[in-house]
Amino acid sequence: MPHRRPSLRGFTLVELLVVIAIIGVLVSLLLPAIQQAREAARRTQCISNLRQIGNALHNYLDANGFFPPSAAFNTGSSITGNSSWSIHGRLLPYLEGASAYDRVQLDVDWGTQLASGVPTLRIPTYLCPSEVHDQMRLDSSGQPRVYPQTYGFNFGTWMVWNPTNGQGGDGAFFVNSSLNVGSFTDGTSSTLAATEVKAFTPYFRNSSDPGATVPSTPATVAGFSSGAQFKLGPNTNDNTGHTEWPDGRVHHSGITTVFTPNTVVNYTHSDSRDYDIDYNSRQEGTSSTEPTYAAVTSRSYHPGMVNALFMDGSCRTISNSVDLEIWRAIGTRSGNEIVEKNGF
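^ that's the sequence the OP posted. Answer follows.
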């Protein structure tokens, strides 16, 4: 009797489609978990960056007897332009950036020191890993000019600096400041030091004086645009807020607490596009008489929150839904507010 070969049976088309469908379902279930794990890792790294910045602030304090100013102008400074070095620049020696720090002069306009190569450095500690525009900012001819950063220091509620009398804002940092721990009568654990911002933020600046009243709505800020200079447009490189880590002015290295985190400050420009903007009424260092008021909002790519550093070096997560009164209270150094830590 002849030997019969066993039949070889493959997948039918229906079976193959069922297997593919099952694989698709499994992938759709796994992807959100993977994305959540990646976002959790990015948040952890972001908080680590802020902790390093906090350590650097206190090392600066130990070495100098005061926390760094946001910028230095006019009094006792030989600054030749209006681009004074930022807190970020002053902290370099305390963040393993001593070699870069040794290549620049803090009492000279950083914009005149591009040849040093320092402004184009990417400083990893100054960049949240969730930032989607982790890229060099180019000049008008397309050449590398400077690198952005994503942590803004606390410049206070609204008023940033008055050059006529040297008065600074009510935050942790301002022009020519020399604050120490004793300056924070609200307590360093209750005073914001820095929080997240987005690189390449649209903004406008140098408008008429908006006055000392803190704006109550984003629409109020948008209304200050008449006669202002615009730093915004359809291309990433058109939107230059928080793109100059060496620059000490509020729209590049600070935040204010006019609005709670991730508040959309909508402005419709003449190009019919809507922009989520920041505002600086007068660039610090460009006028000897006009005060600087600013609405520079804390923003992040972390869903529903921003990471924040406090003046005692601690870090916390702050929800977008934080009460505005609490948000402004932690933005002041000596407002005599009582803020419970579990209130945000």
